[in-house]
Specification:
mainly beta
């Protein structure tokens, strides 16, 4: 259920106009470690300046396959009720490239001594490019693909709510409330190629259960909903060993299975890797699966702060 803008664009016809509606947001196997990318209310929740970088290579060896990079940073202010963040995402598939830069703001409320509820908003821009003229077509004179979409900028506005304790979290969000359009009009013959965004809704949840002093079970889920595609759920079961090593398996409904491994190199520095294989797509016979790597570092910049080891979320 990866975003399909490029695939639908490539198969577009020259007759009339084409409206595109599909799952458009990038997917992450490490969604539980890249939370700010899907929920602005997460900003400031780790009580540190947290910087996370992620790279995903999807459907390796498949020409034009998706490549996604994100970098997020967030921190609480000295006012314990305010968290701020910045999220930058670059998503490329075939001739399509979409880059977004988003500022995140969260208002954090104490529900009890050990739990908090945050409400977050995000605002930013998307820069969309489609180099359609570079495609090798069966009909090279196809007028629909003679014009590119170059640096088309549109606003972005999102909302989220995030409830969390030390060993549990639950969040709902929609990263983009706006439904922008991207279009190319060929004035010579009147043909129009239009791609339209759809709102996406996310539900995230996770917990940590101690099995022994040196072994903990960490189940998490991400559920994605949009009018343009079936509901999809990521289900992940991980085990944390000696509070340092994470081993897990994942299942994405109708799409993929895979595994994860992570290591807390220090209490502040986490390294993770995942591999998933898309069993449910026709492309599965032509690619070698998807790889993802994530790095996260917590900077301590308030004198009273301490890093709790491990930080589960």
């Amino acid at each position: 259920m990866k975003k399909i803008k490029a695939i639908v664009l490539i198969t577009a016809t020259t007759l009339g106009s084409l409206g595109l509606k599909a799952q458009q947001d990038p997917m992450f196997t490490h969604y539980m470690d890249n939370t700010l990318a899907v929920n602005p209310a997460y900003a400031g929740s780790r009580d540190a300046l947290t910087v996370t970088a992620l790279h995903r290579s999807q459907w390796v060896s498949f020409k034009g396959a998706p490549l996604t990079q994100t970098i997020t940073m967030h921190a609480p202010l000295r006012n314990e009720h305010i968290g701020i963040g910045l999220s930058v995402t670059n998503d490329k598939i075939g001739p399509i490239n979409n880059t977004s830069a988003v500022f995140d703001f969260a208002y954090i409320m104490r529900v009890s001594k050990k739990s908090r509820l945050a409400l977050g908003i995000s605002a930013g821009i998307d820069m969309f490019q489609a180099n359609l003229s570079t495609l090798n077509l069966d009909q090279q004179a196809d007028p629909t693909f003679q014009n590119n979409i170059s640096n088309h900028m549109t606003p972005r506005l999102g909302f989220g709510a995030y409830y969390y304790r030390e060993r549990f979290y639950l969040g709902v969000s929609t990263p983009n409330l706006l439904q922008n359009n991207y279009s190319v009009v060929n004035e010579a013959n009147g043909s129009t190629l239009i791609a339209s965004e759809q709102m996406h809704y996310y539900l995230i949840a996770g917990t940590v259960i101690n099995l022994t002093d040196n072994l903990a079970f960490k189940p998490t889920t991400l559920i994605k909903m949009t009018d343009a595609a079936p509901v999809q759920a990521d289900l992940t079961a991980s085990f944390i060993i000696m509070k340092k090593l994470l081993l897990g398996v994942m299942y994405r409904t109708g799409d993929a299975v895979g595994g994860l491994i992570g290591l807390n190199i220090t209490p502040q520095f986490h390294l993770g890797y995942s591999y998933d294989w898309s069993y449910g797509l026709q492309t599965s016979k032509y690619n070698q699966g998807s790889h993802e790597i994530i790095l996260r570092y917590d900077f301590i910049f308030f004198s009273k702060q301490q890093i709790h080891s491990p930080r589960y979320f």
